[in-house]
TrEMBL record:
Protein name: Catechol 2,3-dioxygenase-like lactoylglutathione lyase family enzyme
Glycoprotein in keyword set: no
InterPro entries: Glyas_Bleomycin-R_OHBP_Dase, Glyas_Fos-R_dOase_dom, MMCE/EMCE_epimerase, VOC_core
Residue ranges annotated for the VOC domain, each copy included: 10-124
Entry keyword annotation includes Metal-binding: yes
Entry-linked Gene3D superfamilies: 2,3-Dihydroxybiphenyl 1,2-Dioxygenase, domain 1
Keywords: Metal-binding
Length: 126
């Protein structure tokens, strides 16, 4: 019997790990602004947390010396990117790239979380 190859392996949903200086402030942002729900945490003090909304999942890790990247750490597909953009603007979220139609077939924008992590949000443009 032949050994399975990479083509035989199905990959599932991926959940990005995001480093944050203050895990409780990050929790408040992702829950309060984006509507995620905490489904797991561990450590005392808390050093790891899992947040979910729909099929999206984020793994937060407390990293006291965290310095944000200048590149996006996550891309989230949403059903109404314009509505989420308006919510982010109304909540004072720092917008890195304004909402626009992209040449790769998406309507998208980029914002920064409280730790400066860049999150790219989009939906297919029709």
């Amino acid at each position: 019997m032949a050994e399975p190859g990479i083509a035989d392996i199905t990959f599932g949903r991926a959940a990005p790990g995001i480093s944050v200086r203050d895990i409780h402030a990050a929790h408040d942002f992702y829950v309060g602004v984006l509507g995620f729900e905490k489904v797991f945490e561990n450590g005392s003090p808390v050093g790891f947390m899992v947040l979910k909304k729909g099929r999206a999942e984020i793994h937060l890790s407390r990293t006291p010396g965290h310095k944000p990247s200048t590149t996006n750490v996550m891309h989230i597909y949403v059903s109404d990117v314009a509505a989420l953009y308006a919510i982010c603007e109304s909540k004072g979220v720092r917008i890195i790239k304004r909402l626009a139609d992209k040449d790769y077939g998406q309507r998208a924008f980029v914002f920064a979380d409280p730790d400066g992590n860049r999150i790219d949000v989009g939906e297919p443009s029709n």
